[in-house]
Structure formats: structure tokens, C-alpha cells
Amino acid sequence: MTAALCVTALTGAVAVSGVAPASGAAAHRTPVASHYTVSSFNVLGASHTPPGGKRASGSTRIVWVDRLLARHHVQVAGFQEMQASQATKFLAINRGTWNLYPGVQGKKLDSDNSVGWSKAKFRFVSGTLIRIPYFDGHTRNMPVVLLRDKTSGMLTYFANFHNPADTQHYRNQQKWRRAATRVEIRLENRLALTGIPRILTGDMNERGAYFCRVTAGAPLKAARAASYRSGGRCYPHRPRAVDWVLGSVRTTFTNYFEDRSHLVDITTDHPVITSDVSVDPADLPNGWGSRPAPLVFRSGY
User: Fold this and answer.
1) Which end of the chain is less enclosed by CB atoms within 10 A, N or C?
2) Among 156, 161, 74, residue whose Cα is nearest residue 116
3) pTM of the model as a whole
């Protein structure tokens, strides 16, 4: 990974991309349509299942996470709550076939919210972290990566978020969820300027309200076909999950699925969200966005 990592404060400038164009034939050839399967997957952090509890340990459950990814043929995923021990075990059992960003690169970078991808399918181009308000407004890093589909040549931005929940210890977090959503909207609007396709995954800890807010503010649509906008109005249609997969408006989503099987039930406390994705470069407004430019913007609340 030759790309420089940029981590900045929420109240300061946030650099997105900031990487030199890729070199070699793959960077210059005209891409064809890109097809892959994406997932939003809250794996349930290891600290939530200590020894002696009703659920298996985090290291045991991460093996089941890997099994679920294989079951659904997932090639790129937004992971939430993938704590360091689980991230390390995940990479070990995959023996170099998957990568994570930020993963477990250093003590200052927590792996809980990471984007993961199959190295057979995608090549890493660049990555950065942006900060959103989390519990009681304390900030937390969330990843944005730019990946290139090795088969098609297509570039895609993948951003993954975990917005704060209302819990026994942290009550009334709606203010901070809204603030986090505003950061996510600003990010998506800036990324949209590149013409590069975008995928947004996350445990947003909101159902229809999140969908309506984020799609009103940024050019996004849901992988869940039942949630849509039409004529300027929002129709969320009672989503059951707080987990979302969204993408650029010219993205084609098919086979959206919320896995609530027994294996999922013993692995995590969320459904596993998956969808097939197709993007045709002929549908993109600026060709296929082969020249990602550095983007800097203010992301205060």
C-alpha cells in the first residue's frame, strides 16, 4: 500500500482520496461493467461476549463470520464492531486472501469499523479516515477507501459507518446520530463530484428516518428496493434493520437479502445484509472517473 493515510479532526479539514493516479495498463484501459457482492456486517465485538456468557467468544464467532461471507459470495464488506482480536483472526484464517482498512495497522487506528475486500477481486488505491460524533459527541474514526475492480478496471469509493445507539449507559443519542449523518451527507456529496461510483454501508442505528435524511441530502439510493424516493418524497416502507447498504443513483442493486438464519443468530445480534451490485461505465455522468482528485472540505457538525 503506497497511499498515504490521512487522519484529521472532525472540526478541521478532511482529505478524501489524495492519492496519485494508479500507474500501469490497468489505470488507462477503458473499464467494462463491474459486478460484485457487498455486505454490511456488524460482527458483534468480542468485548460483548466475554467467557462464560451465552454466546461464543469473539474469536469463535469470527470463524462463523467468514463462513457467512463465503455463503453469500461477498467480495467487499463494511464491518462494524470488528475488534482487534477478531480482525487479526479474520485475516489469519483467510491466509492473505482478504484485506482490511484500517484493520490493525497501529495502536491509534482501531479496527472496529473497517472496510474489507477480497484481494482476488479488488486492488487498494487509497484510504483515509474521517471522524464522526459517537457516544455523547466523542469522535470516532470511520473508513473511506478507493478500490479498483481487477476484472473490470472500475474504481469505486466504499465508506463504512457506525452511528451511535441509545444504550443503557448512553441515552438520547439522536442529536449525535443526526450530526453523524450530516458528516456522511457531506462526504457523499464531495465524492459524487468525482463521478466515481460510491457504496455506503453501516450500522446507522436508525431505520426509515436515516434513509430519508441521507437520501434527501446526497445522491444515494438503497439496495433495499422497498425503500426509495419518488417525486421528492421518501418511502422507507418500514425497514426491519438498522443496517444499510446504499449507493450512487446509477448503481444497480439486485438480490438484496437480510440473512437472519440460525448461523447468523449465533454469530451476531444483527442480520447480515447483502446485495449484488452492477455498475456500467456507460451510465456514469463523467465516463468512469479514472482520475480521482484530492477533495478537502470542512466537516463540522
Assistant:
1) N
2) 74
3) 0.88
DSSP output for 50-85:
-TTSSSPPHHHHHHHHHHHHHHTT-SEEEEES--HH
Find the helix packing angle between 174-192 and 208-217, rounded to 10°.
40
Average pLDDT of the chain is: 86
pLDDT tens digits along 250-292: 999 999 999 999 999 999 999 999 999 999 887 776 555 555 6
Beta partners for 122? 149
Neighbours of 162 (CB within 10 A): 23
Cell 478524501 belongs to 16
SS3 content of the chain, % helix, strand, coil (to 5): 25, 35, 40
10 contact partners, CB below 8 Å, separation of at least 6: 130, 131, 132, 133, 139, 183, 299, 300, 301
Residue listed under C-alpha cell 479498483: 148
How many other C-beta atoms are found inside a 10 Å radius of the C-beta of residue 181?
21
How many other CB atoms sit within 10 Å of the CB of residue 240? 10
**For residue 197, with 0-12 CB atoms within 10 Å meaning exposed, 13-18 middle and 19 or more buried, which class applies?**
buried
DSSP SS3 for 16? strand
93, containing H or E segment: helix 84-94
Is residue 69 scored above 90 in pLDDT? yes
33-51 mean pLDDT: 93
Q: Give the model confidence (pLDDT) of 131-152 as tens digits.
A: 999 988 899 999 999 999 999 9
Q: Which residue is associated with the grid cell 474504481? A: 155
